[in-house]
Amino acid sequence: MLDLLYQKWYFPRPELAQRILTLLMDGPGDPVALVGERRIGKTTLLLFELMPLAKGQGLLPVYVDVYQHRADPLAAINYALQEAIDDLTVPNSTIGKRLKTSVKKIGVASATLELGEEPARRRPDDPFLLVDWLIKSLVRTARKPLLLIFDEVQELATVANGENIVSAIRSAITKSKNNVRVVFTGSSQEKLLTLFSRSRAALYEGASTLAFPYLGDDFLDHIAQKSKERFKKRIDPSDLAAAYARLHHQPRALIDLVLLFSSSDVASLTSLLNEQVEFQLMGAQYDMLWRSLKPLHQRICLRIAQRGDVTSLDARIEYALGTNRSEIPVGTVSDALRTLVNDHVLTKAPSGRSRYRLDDPLFEEWLRREGGKLLGQKRRSK
Questions:
Q1: Between vectors from CA 27 to CA 24 and to CA 29, what angle results, nearest 5°?
Q2: CB 158 within 8 A of CB 71
Q3: pTM > 0.85
Q4: Is the pLDDT reported for residue 340 higher than 50?
């Protein structure tokens, strides 16, 4: 969660939060999958806007961090559901007294959701069956419909038993569809396609996909105004926009830069960003990351850093020459791109076909500077 400092700089997007909730409540009732790159504000919007909005309209929001237990994401899911039940089980409180009231039907927004009978079956020991039992128990305990938010769910596409976990989630959601609304979030379009869009996927056609947008010019205006109000320091709008793009549209990274600029004597935001980049590159060990990549992966990363295409004939000829191979088929490049995305070396924007870039903006800067030298070293080593 954001600490108090970042909350003061937070830029709300009530229209986007309302759009998501409207899609959940007035649409077919299917889950909504929010797709967007890492660190562009998905979790923040869900925690600070969508969840309070849903609560105000009569739902119980429950946040599930699938990443909380990366070795056993099903345990993380069941833990979050049980934690939500525990939070509601307060017999001496006003809430606890309300929970003893029998309620069969709930009106929320434009929908009327019906609660089922109290489950008489015992708590199952099997963790895959436990998901369903916990969701039903949570609905009965809360006496209201749920908004379940599964953050970073795309990791289930590759984790051990991931398909079984997703099947358990889908079954539980389907069985409680009248009482549950669901948001999935993910930062890997490729992995989410594996879950939602392919005909044999565990969640095939099980969610409406919504591209999560970057914060725009109104966010930059907000940051500039905050800096002027709090620190009496004006930031050149073009410098702010350029820094935001250079930082891969990551709001917290931009706020960190602005806070540092506001307390420094540096003449411009661009000058400070250049200084920060130089300082961080000196301490970074990107040469180790570079050496860990396969030769084809290295060539792909270099072309992306240099704003080149990655699958054209010219690109594949370059890859072949650089890796001493007669040719590089398109399928081989696609496999390499998928691996680089899964390893968080590259990221793919949810909108726009084949739009890849380096996940770490500093690694991109390093490659752009060192590319010629790296290729020269390759040629000398042959």
A1: 60
A2: no
A3: no
A4: yes
